Amino acid sequence: PLTSLLLDGVVAGLSGVLVFIPQIAILFAFISILEDTGYMSRVTFMMDRIMRKVGLNGKSVVPLIGGFACAVPSIMSTRTIENWKDRMITIMVTPLITCSARLPVYTLLISLVVPNRNVWWIFNLQGIAMMAMYLFSVVSAVIVAWVFKLILKSRERGYFIMELPVYQMPRWKNVGFTMYDRSKTFVIQAGKVIIAVSIILWVLASYGPPKRMRAIEQKYSNASFTAQKSATELQHLKSTDQLENSYAGILGHAIEPAIRPLGFDWKIGIALITSFAAREVFVGTMATIYSVDGSADKLDSVQDKMKHARNPNTGLPVFTFAAAMSLMMFYAFAMQCASTVAIVYRETKEWKWPAIQFAYMTVLAYGASLITFQLLK
Q1: Residue range 167-191, pLDDT digits in tens
Q2: In the structure, what pLDDT confidence band is assigned to residue 286 with cuts at 50, 70 and 90?
Q3: Alpha-carbon distance 329 to 350, whole Å?
Q4: How many CA atoms lie within 13 A of 322 on its CB side?
């Protein structure tokens, strides 16, 4: 059991996130260059007039751009916005921006269903899909901000004052340090959550009601049942039965009726629950589930295991194009981040705002996912 815990629980969960360090480092590098050159401040000034049309102001640009890295420090940076209404709208829409925690989820799902080939000679199809998700998040944030502009009442008149720094070359030492520091922080913070979640998930996926587990052992010790099957096939069938009847399987099956219209099965349901702690936990959860499942022992990566996953009832792939796009839509909107909920409470000093934020994002996530799957299936 200890070896299985380390290999199928901790290692499988962490490895699913560590492979995405290069993408995260590059993201933080570009944000650092924009800040170091002084260009970010000018963007803030130039965007003020445009941002006011949707209920924001120029200073909202910095938190929104920072949201591409992480919503938590971005929401903290809204303290520089003096106007209450502008600040509240910025806080409410910043989590919609595609953060670095969504990057592993999108990368995994896009690699499953989007062909890795070039279009128009220079553009990669998977890259276009990723860019589309980033642009979609910006458009979504702008539309939701405009809606909040109509709903929230202003408490005081807003104004915009700031000092523009001179243009300068970025200090590459600072850029390198930022890449290293932010990537390390991301991995450490995510790692703590992922290790805890992976261990809990391994326990839930490896154990179940004793009566059910004994019935499975008796089934596979029956000579008449095992006579016509190879050892490899028996091991696979037994692992699948044990996972489905484990505590994790019971939990997944309990929510499956609600998520089936979205194209999700009970295994994805488990990942949706565990990834509320942090979105990137989805990748580690899927790695852990498919490792415990034993359904693709010879395959090297989470992508391979998920690509070969089949629905036992229909025999069709679990991760079809429609299901993967539906899942991406869900993660584009859903508040799958406990840290963001906590920081919104800390910044607003009341639970009303994180509750409203969680509710509207969940409704948007379910609706967008449902529409996407029903249109594409």
Answers
A1: 889 889 998 998 888 778 777 766 6
A2: confident
A3: 29
A4: 15
> Strands (DSSP E) along the chain, which ranges?
118-119, 123-124
Contact 125, 302 (CB under 8 A): no
Question: What is the distance between the terminal CA atoms of the chain, rounded to a whole angstrom?
Answer: 40
Kindly report, residue by residue over 292-326, the tens digit of the pLDDT.
554 444 345 677 778 888 877 777 888 999 999 99
Q: What angle do CA 275, 280, 284 make, to 5 degrees?
A: 80
Check pLDDT > 90 for residue 104: no
Quote the tokens at residue 192: 């703590």
Indicate the DSSP class of residue 129. Answer: H
Residue 123 β-bridge partners? 119
Cβ–Cβ under 8 Å, residues 202 and 5:
yes
- CA nearest 80: which of 66, 62, 93? 62
- Residue 141, pLDDT > 80, answer yes
Beta bridge partners of 118: 124
Question: Six-digit token pair at 218?
Answer: 């008796």
Interatomic CA distance for residues 63 and 149, integer angstroms = 18
Q: Return the residue matching tokens 């489905």.
A: 244
